[in-house]
Write a sequence for this structure.
């Protein structure tokens, strides 16, 4: 049972986000400062990032002596294409730049590259590994 | 730049799906897809929607227009009405019986038509979305001129997301999948199955290894292909694998084959299209001997652009 009703996003909240696909693709992904990366000999990248826990679970972990950096972090190994995309996230390239790059590099159909790239970035965003910077001229930074 | 310049008209691309084909501006892309449904979007949002159905018996325009009208009255703020068919549309849709309509809501409006083809008994609902008054009326007109709802030569054209192929009309689409990295179309005619696959990017999948090693690892996806005894082959100068057999290693099929005393015929060809960095595959199985000439024809008309 829910104790609190989930707040519906207001019109104001919605107006802050991108209003069209074109606008969404102009956002610039930025790496989280809390993520550390390690490059394997194969060229693939392993990301280590802190695990976000609910406060009560965090206090339980502390009581059980499980609260150390190692236990509260996760690792994610990216494949070749993911590692290449990760290396391109510099906060300056927009999502559509990344799509164009992947399209050219792997000779992919534009739509296919777009679906793959947005899916990958959405997944990174959900894990808190990246945020999105609004296109130049707009203020504010959003998490995925 | 005027999108209707003759130069840019040449850059328009063909979208063909399950019997329907039309030419659209290059920036339009399919955003939603079902066996008898297509939605195309431009950079901003939906621009064209198509829905079609095979009709058995008599077709009534009034019934379908009433349905649309009822749908619009149940949606607040939408004004729907039937309009006389515009003269220009009449010329473009000369092969069809047509009724046209418009609808208007606060932010967007639409103009569409219900078409009925008496030759193939197909009814089609199509509508163009208009976001602003200044939308170029020549684009819908050009699309309608290119619109076809059946083939004349018994081969059905499929063209989507860079994939192009011609498949004999008797095959019906039973499954499709367009995931990044793997496209799959599966057709069936009676007990005959035809699978078209496209995997990519090839350089990532092969990782310097050969096609056979990759295929042996990959063929779990179409497990009956394992029975095809694949061997390396040169297909029009492209590295390829080909195999065929009469038998199946899938337990259920083996049991069925034992009960019916019929072993399925299998034919598989996979080739590496280095120029597009993709791997294409055609596989077929059936209880009767397969028509190899037809399969050769499918392979020769299967490409990525």
């Amino acid at each position: 049972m829910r104790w609190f009703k989930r707040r519906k996003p207001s019109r104001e909240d919605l107006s802050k986000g991108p209003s069209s696909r074109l606008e969404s693709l102009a956002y610039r992904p930025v790496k989280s400062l809390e993520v550390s990366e390690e490059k394997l000999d194969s060229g693939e990248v392993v990301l280590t990032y802190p695990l976000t826990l609910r406060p009560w679970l965090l206090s339980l972990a502390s009581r059980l002596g499980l609260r150390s950096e190692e236990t509260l972090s996760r690792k994610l190994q990216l494949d070749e294409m993911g590692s290449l995309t990760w290396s391109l996230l510099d906060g300056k390239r927009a999502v559509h730049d990344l799509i164009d790059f992947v399209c050219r590099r792997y000779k992919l159909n534009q739509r296919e590259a777009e679906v793959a790239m947005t899916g990958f970035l959405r997944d990174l965003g959900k894990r808190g590994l990246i945020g999105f910077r609004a296109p130049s001229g707009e203020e504010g930074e959003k998490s995925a | 730049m005027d999108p209707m310049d003759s130069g840019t008209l040449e850059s328009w691309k063909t979208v063909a799906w399950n019997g329907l084909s039309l030419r659209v501006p290059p920036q339009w892309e399919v955003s939603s897809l079902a066996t008898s449904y297509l939605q195309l979007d431009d950079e901003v949002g939906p621009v064209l929607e198509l829905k079609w159905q095979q009709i058995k018996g008599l077709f009534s325009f009034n019934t379908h227009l009433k349905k649309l009208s009822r749908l619009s009255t149940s949606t607040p703020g939408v004004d729907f009405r039937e309009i006389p068919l515009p003269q220009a549309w009449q010329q473009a849709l000369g092969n069809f019986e047509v009724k046209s309509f418009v609808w208007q809501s606060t932010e967007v409006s639409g103009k569409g038509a219900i078409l009925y083809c008496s030759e193939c008994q197909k009814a089609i609902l199509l509508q163009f979305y208009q976001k602003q008054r200044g939308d170029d009326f020549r684009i819908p007109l050009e699309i309608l001129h290119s619109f076809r709802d059946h083939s004349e030569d018994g081969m059905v054209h499929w063209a989507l997301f860079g994939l192009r192929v011609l498949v004999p009309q008797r095959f019906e689409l039973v499954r499709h999948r367009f995931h990044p990295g793997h496209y799959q179309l599966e057709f069936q005619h009676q007990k005959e199955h035809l699978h078209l696959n496209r995997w990519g990017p090839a350089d990532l999948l092969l990782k310097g290894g050969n096609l056979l090693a990759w295929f042996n690892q990959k063929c779990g996806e179409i497990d009956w292909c394992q029975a095809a005894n694949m061997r390396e082959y040169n297909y029009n100068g492209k590295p390829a694998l080909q195999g065929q057999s009469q038998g199946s290693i899938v337990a259920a099929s083996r049991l069925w084959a034992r009960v019916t005393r019929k072993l399925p015929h299998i034919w598989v060809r996979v080739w590496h299209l280095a120029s597009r960095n993709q791997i294409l595959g055609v596989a077929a199985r059936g209880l009767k001997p397969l028509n190899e000439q037809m399969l050769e024809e499918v392979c020769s008309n299967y490409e990525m652009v």
